Amino acid sequence: MKNIKLLVITICMVASIQSIAKAMQSNDLQNVLNRDRIILDGVWDVIVDPLENGYYNHRWNPREDGYFQNDKMEKPSDLIEYDFDSDLQLNVPGDWNTQEEKLYYYEGTIWYKREFDYKPKTMGENLFLYFGAVNYDAIVYLNGKKLGQHIGGFTPFQFDVTGKVKSEKNWIVVKVDNKRKREAIPTINTDWWNYGGITRSVYLIQTPKEFIRDYTIKLSKESDKKIDIKVELNDASLTGNVEVNIPELKISKKISVTNGKGSLTLSAKPKLWSPSNPKLYEVTFSYNFDTIKDQIGFRRVETKGTKILLNGKEIFLKGISIHEESPFKTGRVTTLEECRTLLNWALEMGCNFVRLAHYPHNEFMVREAEKLGLIVWSEIPVYWTVLFDNEGTYQNAENQLVEMIHRDKNRANIVMWSIANETPEGDARLQFLKKLSEKVRSLDKTRLVTAALDTHSKKDGLSFIEDDLGKYVDVIGINSYCGWYSKAPNECMDIKWGSDYDKPVIVSEFGAGALQGLHGTEFERWTEEYQAAVYRNNIAMLKNMSFLAGTSPWILMDFRSHRRHLRRIQRDFNRKGLISEQGVKKQAFFILQEYYNSIDNK
After folding, report:
1. Which CATH number is 87's domain given?
2. How confident is the model at residue 77 (pLDDT cuts 50, 70, 90)?
3. 213 CB contacts (<8 Å, ≥6 apart)?
4. How far apart are CA 274 and CA 388, in angstroms?
5. Domains identified in the chain, total number
6. Chosen domain end from 244, 265, 299
7. Over the stretch 330-350, which tens digit does the pLDDT of each residue have?
8. Which pLDDT value is given to residue 455?
9. pTM score > 0.85 for this model?
10. pLDDT at 120
């Protein structure tokens, strides 16, 4: 009987996630930031609901539309205490943990509410309610009626609200639940802060009745002198022409559309995007009354043996890992200015590459990195020991992967999609990640598949990479903390490496913790000198790796983590940053900077 109940629960969870994914993907809009939008950011009213009484009645049965019974917001008699007007307020976008002291460690449900008026630009237009990200489980209501649900804390989602919005006194309510779950992606145990809330912007997106829902534009696989374009309209019954204009390339062409879709290959000679020349072209798509613009770069990325090639030339990726942690004030990154601060620190260090760990970052971050010439590794939070034998967990991971790729598929600087970080070897894990790698390739054949491994053995005196996952990725990431979790710093420099695979390797993590301003000898843990010694010796070790194609040490800036408790050192921060959370650079920053500046990149 217990097994039958477990099977029923699993089937229901799979069905739920699949239906949620289908609902989301059916209305996905490409390039939201360049569309006509009304911003709903600002102060929202909230109710903290740890017992979820706003969702379940006293018999623990879900209320169909929450406790919001009609557009007058009358409350049932058993919830007279629930009143947005007399409770807390929080900023959106933002996390609740750093906005309200009593919510610092809170994990559970908080209800958000925002009122708005709406006056359409023209009659008959479409309207979508868009969320950049909500962590983690969001149930959304409009004017007292449930719109739907989204699971996953770092990818966007939207609902078609055409015809559901009044001219005055509309109200959105969102049930936000950030409780960690064993079957979730990420799972219960992680090494970053579980920031709860509506953490990215909320928009009303306005479009004409007939509009361009999606498009893909990229350099052709056949030639650097051809551009492939695909377009998709919002209705499969639509026909006609979509006009594409790239003025700088003197391109003005029409794409014939049948059954809502069309494609075209153009002859062109674009200057190719690279870190030294992050060239972007203004591209305009038009269909009837709909016009949308984007800034597009063209480039080619591939591997040849152990080398990564960008535009046919070998490139060494001089990188750093970054968490979406706000500089100076800490908490979740919410603004373009915060993204620029983090990325400019990476540029100052000499980087041409950033690993955006361990989840899809704000779209501002990706687009700004593209403008600055920073190559991006983008990742989903399949992290540590998820339930690899659980079908619902896989569907959740795949949905987050699809949403990440869909949002950023036109960004030239993303060259790698990462499917996992530090996952333990095993048959279930291998099949899980193999399926994800196949899903990536079914969606995007223009980029490389990668994953960060932390498993390597000793073989013939070498640290040896032989994880079977290496068969299914294009670039192997390896996390190695010599001098911190194993050995003394001075025992690292002579380590030699081998690999079962004729593939590029990126040392995706190495490093050590240090409290900024704490000084001592290079043998005293937690001092800046110890961290600097770890970097010097690991950099020496890197030179022993003939297959090395890049590095992204851990990490740019100190960030909050529930696992880091040392009162006098960590205070809930992972201290492996090369910069403190207040923006002060540690000694190791300059050591890595010197190393990167010494590399004559190809």
Report:
1. 2.60.120.260
2. low
3. 28, 29, 30, 232, 233, 234
4. 37
5. 3
6. 299
7. 999 999 999 999 999 999 999
8. 74
9. yes
10. 85
Q: In the listed set 299, 324, 344, which residue is the last one of a domain according to the structure?
A: 299
Amino acid at 237: S
Domain co-membership, 115 together with 221: no
> Do 432 and 540 share a structural domain?
yes
Please give the pLDDT value at position 78: 63
Provide the token pair at 53: 């009484």
Q: What is the pLDDT of residues 276-291, one digit of tens each?
A: 999 999 999 999 999 9
Nearest to residue 479, comparing CAs of 450, 500, 508, 505? 508
Q: Is the peptide bond prior to 358 cis by the omega test (within 30 degrees of 0)?
A: yes
Nearest one of 414, 348, 360, 295 to 155, comparing CA atoms? 360
**Pairwise pLDDT comparison (5 vs 187), residue with the higher score:** 187
Q: How far is CA 472 from CA 375, 383, 437, 438, 475, in A?
A: 22, 18, 7, 8, 9
Q: Tell me the residue range of the domain where 405 lies.
A: 302-598
In this prediction, residues 483-501 reach a mean pLDDT of 94
One-letter identity of residue 425:
E
Report which secondary-structure segment, H or E, holds 148. strand 145-151
- Judge if 174 and 318 occupy the same domain: no
Per-position DSSP letters for 316-378, written without gaps between them: -EEEEEE-SB-TTT-SB--SHHHHHHHHHHHHHTT-SEEEE-SSPPPHHHHHHHHHHT-EEEE
